[in-house]
Structure formats: C-alpha cells, structure tokens
Amino acid sequence: MIPSKRGGQRVFPPSRSLSPRLIPRPPRPVLFIFCEGKNTEPEYLRDFAAKHGVALQRDTHLFPACGVPKTLLKLAIEKRKSLLKEDERNFQVWMVTDVDEHGHEMCGIIQEARKQAINLIISNPCIELWGLYHFTPYPTAALDRHQAQRELEQKMPGYDKDKGKRFDLNRMFPLHKEAVKRAKEVLKRAEAEDPHPNPSSNFYALLEAIEKNSSRDPLNADPAHKE
User: Fold this and answer.
1) Looking at the DSSP assignment, which residues form a beta bridge with residue 95?
2) Which of 5, 33, 25, 1 is nearest to 15 (CA)?
3) What phi-psi label fits residue 100: left (phi over 0), alpha (psi between -120 and 50 degrees) or beta?
4) What is the full DSSP assignment across 186-222?
5) Of 181, 178, 195, which Cα lies nearest the Cα of 120?
6) Is residue 218 over pLDDT 80?
7) pLDDT for the residue numbered 174
8) How many helices (H) and strands (E) does the chain have?
9) How many Å apart are CA 124 and CA 23, to the nearest integer?
10) How far apart are CA 65 and CA 45, in angstroms?
11) Residue 102, helix vs strand vs coil
C-alpha cells in the first residue's frame, strides 16, 4: 500500500507488529478421578463437569466405587505411574474419599498421597457435608455419617439415603459459591490444629480444577454462576 500524504508528511499504516496478539491458552490437564462412592460423588462430578463443558467419561476419566481408602489410593498411584510410563505429562490424578469409619488410617493415607503426588479430597465424616454446605451454615459440632445424611434429606428433597443418595445439581448449583465459601472458612480456621477436622470437606478443590478445565467462559457457563 502506497503511503498517503497529509500536510506534506507521509502517513504510514500502523505496523502489524503493534497489533495485539492472542496469547494461546495452555493445554488443559486431563483429569483422572477415583471415587470411593458408587453414585453420589461420581454422578455429581459428571453433571457438574458437563455444565462447564468438561467431559468426564466413566471408567476412562472417572472411576466410581473403587473400594476403601487404601484401595482407592493404590489404584490412583498405579494410574499415575502408568501415565508417566506412557510419557503423559499434562494430567492430574485425584482421589475422593470419606473419613467415616476410616479415621484411624487417614493420617498415613494423607502422607502417602502427598508423597505420590495424588490430589486428595477428603470429606469428614462424609460427602453429604458438601451437600449441606449449600443449604445451611456449617455445623460446628462433630457429625457422624447418619446425622449428615438425615440432615441432607431435610434440606434437599431429591436426596434419599436409602435410594441411591444422589445430589440434586439443579438445586445446588445456584448456591455453589456460598458452599465453597463455607467449606474454605472451616478449613482455614482449623488449619493449624487439624487439616481435615470433623466436620469439613475440601471437595470444592476438585470442582475448581474442573472449572479451570472448562472449555467455556465461566461467566457464561450458567446465569446463576455469575458474580
């Protein structure tokens, strides 16, 4: 293009080098999630991920009903080692478990998970506490699994401890940010004494990893999820 003249001076088009360039987004890590539960955690995770445009395929990326915490950790470690042998680098391996009656062995499991670079999600006493965080201020007194389940039945009509124990994502999603806030506050207060006190859950950490893995603009993922 021939430069034009204005007032006796040549006017050159702007340099292309000054044009803004899109910074490519780093590749999203592939998530591999091992769950102690058969229905509650895996179905909620699958639906939550789908709402954010993330596909968690059963028995490929999402593994339900893997057994007690020790077995769960063993499977997660084996998966990580196999991925490293295949020279896979961009991945995360997660383990989702309840404390419930396994409290006596959780200290060793936490230490081994850290040693093996397994991302550990612990709900104490159980995953139902994560559901409760959506509907009520966090309880301060210790709970057992049966108490948490009874309370959640009252707060979330679709949940039935005797019929599959499934979370109602449609009721929970609009209250998601409040639940995350409550869960983080509990752990922050207890951090110095016990990283996973009863009651507490860091389930939100896995959900944040899913959100970061989203192919959608998080502000447009769902109207209820906007600031």
Assistant:
1) 34, 120
2) 1
3) left
4) HHHHHTTT-SSPSSEE-THHHHHHHHHT-SS-GGGS-
5) 195
6) no
7) 96
8) 8, 7
9) 41
10) 14
11) helix
How much is the average pLDDT of 64-69?
A: 95
pLDDT in tens, 182-210: 999 999 887 667 878 999 999 999 999 99
Average pLDDT over residues 168-184: 96
Q: One-letter amino acid identity for 209?
A: A
Place of tokens 């039935």: 160
CA–CA distances in Å: residue 26 to residues 68, 83, 215: 35, 20, 12
Which alpha helices (DSSP H) does the chain contain, by range?
Answer: 40-51, 69-85, 106-115, 128-132, 145-155, 169-172, 176-190, 204-212
Q: What is the pLDDT of residue 13?
A: 55
Predicted TM-score (pTM) of this structure: 0.84
Q: Which of 48-52, 130-134, 186-190 has the lowest mean pLDDT?
A: 186-190
Q: Which residues contact 114 (CB under 8 A, 6 or more apart)?
A: 120
